[in-house]
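Hi X.,

You mentioned you wanted examples for the new student's onboarding notes, showing what a folding record looks like when two proteins sit in one file. Here is a clean example. The first protein comes first, with its sequence line followed by its structure tokens.
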Amino acid sequence: MIKSLLAAGAACLALCSSAAFGAEKPDLALYGRLPQIEDVTISPDGSKLAVIMTDGEERLLAVRQLDGKILAGVKAAKTKLRDVLWAGEDHVIMLSTQTAIVYGLQGPAREYLMAVDFNLITRKQSLLLRSQPDSMNVILDRPMIRMIDGQPVAFVEGVHFLDNQGVDTLFRVNLKDGGTRMLDGGARMDADGWLVDAAGEPTAQSLYDSKKGRWSLRMKIGSSWKTIDEADSPMGSYGLSGFGRDGKSVLVWRTDDKNNDILREYRGVGSHEDLPGDLDLSGLIHDPGNLSLLGGYTLKGDDLVYTFFDPTSQKAWDSVTKAFKGDRVTLESWSKNRRRVVVLVDSAVDGPAYALIDLDTKRADWLGLVYKDLGAEAVSPVRPIKYKAADGLEITGYLTLPKGRDPKNLPLVVLPHGGPEGRDTPGFDWWSQALASRGYAVLQPNFRGSEGFGWDFVQAGFGEWGKKMQTDLSDGVRDLAKQGIIDPKRVCVVGASYGGYAALAGATLDRGVYRCAVSVAGPSDLRKMLISVRDAHGGDMSATQRYWLRFMGADGIRDPDLASISPARLADKVDIPVLLIHGKDDTVVRYDQSQAMADALKKAGKPFAFVTLESEDHWLSRGATRLRMLTETVAFVEKHNPPD
């Protein structure tokens, strides 16, 4: 249980002054320690803020008034506090995760999500779903908070066991007295998501048969549940995306026959409508009161664009962004009437900071910098780039240039993103900024297979692990060298997750480009990785496994081609120093992936170093180990690719 902290330093929420670095390089802790503010959420009536803060290593929750007065606090200690949400004005729900192996459950350790209700009046904390018969005390998704008869009620997806099998089940938790009951939704073994309307009535249920790759939507019509739609979806469930424009219809992101993303609005049996494709929304925004769809947002080029259906709402948002012209503004939370808004302002000059906007008084107040003591002196410029891959495909990305250095003949670090179906975006990136502070240019390419550039671009990555997805990186190096920006003889590759694989592939499959490689939690033996995925799903073929096989271009676990793109099977080809860093508690890419690479390099007599991050997960959630990762990475790159 999280320990109470009755007072928290309000000074941490004041906008910190810039540090003066002079000729000295900034301390790596400036970038590598946890952000001093990780999240700010405003209460429904707009009078209070719930702030996830850190002291650089550990997290705490501070609840404060708008004038800065601290009302309550909770010290998270070693709990991985991920998110908070308000339940009325007197309850804050804290969401945290824990890595664990649960006795009696098959498979390896997993990351489990838990929810704790913090009562601001009594100062007591209560674990949701505690002591429920035949159920776990973990939750499967963010709770849905509804006000019923003036009281906050949490609707929570939990795990209830039927015939020794865990079933995604909906529970109703009255936060006033803790009363909890399981709701009847048909007790379907393949349930994977729920929607509860503003009145507190379960309305929709998503189901997914992982073995068949088949998705279904059920809606409650009258007093009975009916199947509304079904579709083959071998790469995973379509799930549920909230309520539609009337607050009653149900939205689902799904694909059409050409694999184009469509947003379908369901009203009942045989009644649905696809929202216009020209909306071009990648994320949705709902009214915090009646749950209706208000609009959404998407990244257009390098700009984050918000679109609201209602002209008045659009005008209000435009007035918010106008106050921070030239900066990237993200909506973080807002009051129930949407007149007080918390935004994250990402400045290319000063880095990211939180601000509170009052639309009635037309006032904007800074709440605090995300990174303590980060000033303009420590932020290097980032610019978008484009180049052509060897086969003519256009690749975009971002180039961070070391502040104060002439962009000519610079040493370079290639920093590919994870996923691989992720993407890099403009804005402050602590890892690339840290490397740039040491004198390196940093290239972050959105190689083929990255999301956000259309289905054809994603599809171009299928079967290209270690192949064109890899040469897209080195094609970027060659383009920068041709322009004279970087020295092609002084290049290293660094990455995490899939980016870690790309670093190892740069040392084994695309040699002659890099002087060193750093892999953080990167896969090295793809067959072994697929076996781990299979074991985590009880030995069955899962959507996750089908997803990886499609990107790897393999027919199955026994496909011999997997060896030809697995760095651990190619260790004898390594001719540059390699650094392996891996968290011992990683549940996404298991620790044994780096261990396998280390064993192979040792057997082949190749130079390498291996750093184990104790009690660390895939996301570098711990302050001390995150900073250690950055420190070890920078020291290794500086040793084998000196910046001066």
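Then the second protein repeats the pattern, sequence line and then tokens:
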Amino acid sequence: MTPEDVLAIAKARAAANRAKYGHLTDAERIQALPVQNFADREDLVDKWTAAFRRPASQARLFPVQAEVLETAAWAAQHPNIGLVGNVRVGGGKTLAFNLLPEVFDAKRPVLLLPPEMLEDYKTALYAWSQQFKFRRVHVVKYSELSRPEGTDLLRRLNPDLIMADEAQALRHASSARTTRFLRYMEEVPETRFVPMSGTLTGATLSDYSHLCYWALRQHSPLPHREDIVDLWGSVLNADGEPDEDAWLALEWLDKDAAKRRNVDAMRKAFQRRFASAPGVVTTYDSSSGARLVLTADYPTVNNDVRDALEQGRETYALPDGTELVDAVHYHRAMQQLSMGFYYVWDWEGEPDVEWLAARKAWWGACRGYLKDSAREGVDSPFLVEEYVRREGRPKGLVDALAAWDAQRHKPPPPTRAVWIDYGPVMRAVEWALARPRCFLWWRSRAVGELLGELGVPKFGEGDGTPDPRKHPRAALSIAVHHKGRNYQAWDDQLVLEVPSSGAWWEQLLGRTHRYGQTSPEVRCSVFQRTWPQRNAFETALDRARYIQDTTGQPQKLL
């Protein structure tokens, strides 16, 4: 086949795609997007500061805030278009959100916000209101959008502008809040949408392709079609497994990278196209001038923990014999064992033996099937269950699943912690007492409770936030405090239970390593005493590299 033949076939395929879908292919559309570049951001700062600053104020906008407003001014000239803010943690999104309704001339603006950020938002809003003029914004917590009574919340508010802080909260299209958001956008497509986050993506393009679509529509630098998102993602994602078609589909980005099958180079080529697309604002600088130092901490591992981890790796079971039902439960349990404990059922009264027996029989049968018969398409508990329901075989699994189906509607009993080694938590307390001010980061309820009992003030769900004058040392729940909080009064921390998400790490480190940090150095130590903790950290590093390479957002973990 001659080069002319190949070119003719390519042109024919492109024409067929245009005929089939009525527009350019995703690759052609994205390749044709103009390049957006604001060369002189200081001029933008002068322009937009003058537009919104109160007469007696001397405050100035940050360059990224001015760029957000300039991008919004461009978007306002196009119907239905918003913007995408790939803005680093601590980059000043709060003020930018409150100035956007004026630029868009929005009459009914709504800001979506994580519930744990509401008090900090109100505090920041009051401070900024003394310096800048902005319109009233109706704030909706993501939790309100998730509740049963929130099913028509957006329809009742009828916003003409939806702004999403920590927009990764809309990452999962199957969640109630995302479903309700997408339904409203489909019903009222003229609504403008502005997602902003320092962590738009965690591991895959599908984390934010739908957000880019509703924000930028035809200007989105990501594919519109889900199958193309998946195809590109097989090359670009943190855990992608590309085939020949995937590399060919991305040749237009970087022909040499595709030829050499170079994932890093292809990610960087994608990042250049993403960050330069009209309507996308990306920050490339650090949120703090402080030096950031990460170190590993290696508490001693006793024999009981070592044996429990080995048993868990070999049998997918806890020390009391409880089956670990899937990969999520397995990895969580291995991290908990690394901290010296595991959870057991804490029945009120007699155990429900039917529930226990059915659960154990199903997961035991499922585990045995995966050990002996796993194959592509049937290589996880979820896929085994789908296969059994679809095919009606093998009989042993059909019977076990039927028995479990008859019991699985029952709520599981509460749990209590069984400690086999207090050493890691004791080590953490000793570490904290040797420092004038610091945080201990924990994930498991049992760890937080033990830290509190040992005298370190604990801050979990509903416990408020630490005060640097009253709580120079504090134990913080990662789930509750890792995002949206300003903790620049502290500069030292120890992570006990290690997140495997690069996005979580970016947010967590951004609590202290952020604008306003006056210490010349921010330090973070990380427990690396066991293989589950080391594996989790390596996974987080891989995902941080994916985020940095594909979005251009520098990752603190790197």
